């Protein structure tokens, strides 16, 4: 069983590809479905995006509540560039026998423009090759740690990650512009159901994972985050993967 969390589809896509290769199935941890019994699973896998060089809190609390098993366990962290100590820290929450990071297109459009088409496609193609290799290693139950940590990991996965979870996950800066037609895609898309359409416009509740699915997948490009995202392109894997949607 492969548990995943995904904002813009990268981690979902990686989880599904690995599942296909190793003959397993996936479970979206943000779905409202009951957590399956994992006692007799061959594998327990976790696939998630890195957020400020840490695993998303939603994945950490999910793993904390998941029963411990004797199966082979693995974690795969998708990132735009590097993951710091995200996987090392996650493995303290739930024992993981093998750990990998995979570079995918960057969806953090609050920080910078997303990758251009050429770079996004190159990253996805490289990831496909890596996923084959990773899947083979998982099947062989190989104990591995292969992660692009980058530099200053102890600072990035320490104080910077703490700061992100404490201060940067506010919904205050989200707003819909006049381009919004009240279609409700953001409301339906939000993995934690924090968005509600009121008087034809989205309104954000307090809680937010900062997955940025709302901004990146708005069909009208009508959602912004303060001034940071104005004029920037959007990203979701469906733009580059035909069978994704
Ligand atoms: C809030 C936030 C923080 C991020 N932090 C990092 C980071 O620290 N390092 C990095 O390389 N990529 C970072 N990214 C990029 C994502 O981890 C990356 O694009 C990931 O593959 C997105 O996965 P998803 O499509 O499954 O949501 C961040 C993205 C978001 C939304």
Secondary structure layout:
Blueprint: E1 2-4, H1 10-22, E2 26-28, E3 43-49, H2 57-65, E4 72-79, H3 86-93, E5 98-103, H4 117-139, E6 144-146, H5 153-167, E7 174-176, H6 185-189, E8 195-198, E9 201-204, H7 213-216, E10 223-225
Parallel strand pairs: 1-2, 1-3, 3-4, 4-5, 5-6
Antiparallel strand pairs: 7-10, 8-9
Bound molecules: flavin mononucleotide.
How would you summarize this macromolecular structure in one to three sentences?
By secondary structure, the protein is α/β, with parallel strands linked by helices. The protein is 31% helix and 18% strand.
- Beta percentage is 15-25%
Helicity, as a percent range: 25-40%
CATH superfamily of the largest domain: Flavodoxin domain
Low-confidence regions: none
Bound molecules: flavin mononucleotide
The CATH topology assignment of the largest domain is: Rossmann fold
User: Averaging pLDDT over every residue, what do you get?
Assistant: 96
Rg, Å, rounded = 18 Å
Any idea how many domains?
2
Largest sheet: 6 strands, parallel
In the CATH hierarchy, the architecture of the largest domain is 3-Layer(aba) Sandwich
Query: What's the level 1 CATH class of the largest domain?
Result: Alpha Beta
Oligomer: single chain
Q: Spell out the helices and strands N to C.
A: EHEEHEHEHEHEHEEHE
Q: Using DSSP, what is the number of strands?
A: 10
What is the rounded distance between the termini? 23 Å
Give me the number of helical elements. Answer: 7
User: SS-based structural class?
Assistant: alpha/beta
């Amino acid at each position: 069983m492969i548990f995943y969390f995904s904002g813009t589809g990268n981690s979902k896509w990686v989880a599904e590809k690995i599942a296909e290769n190793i003959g397993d199935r996936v479970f979206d941890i943000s779905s409202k479905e009951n957590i399956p019994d994992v006692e007799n699973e061959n594998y327990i896998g976790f696939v998630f995006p890195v957020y400020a060089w840490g695993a998303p809190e939603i994945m950490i609390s999910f793993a904390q509540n998941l029963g411990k098993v004797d199966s082979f366990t693995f974690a795969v962290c998708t990132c735009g560039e590097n993951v710091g100590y995200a996987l090392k820290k996650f493995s303290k929450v739930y024992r993981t026998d093998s750990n990998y990071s995979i570079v995918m297109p960057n969806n953090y459009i609050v920080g910078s423009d997303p990758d251009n088409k050429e770079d996004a496609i190159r990253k996805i193609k490289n990831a496909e090759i890596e996923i084959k290799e990773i899947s083979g290693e998982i099947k062989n139950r190989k104990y591995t740690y292969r992660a692009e940590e980058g530099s200053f990991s102890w600072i990035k996965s320490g104080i910077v990650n703490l700061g992100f979870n404490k201060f940067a996950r506010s919904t205050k800066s989200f707003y819909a512009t006049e381009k919004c037609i009240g279609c409700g895609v953001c409301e339906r898309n939000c993995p934690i159901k924090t968005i509600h359409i009121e008087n034809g416009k989205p309104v954000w509740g307090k809680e937010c994972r900062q997955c940025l699915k709302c901004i990146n997948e708005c069909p009208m490009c009508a959602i912004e985050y303060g001034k940071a995202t104005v004029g920037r392109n959007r990203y979701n894997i469906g733009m580059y993967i035909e069978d994704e949607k």
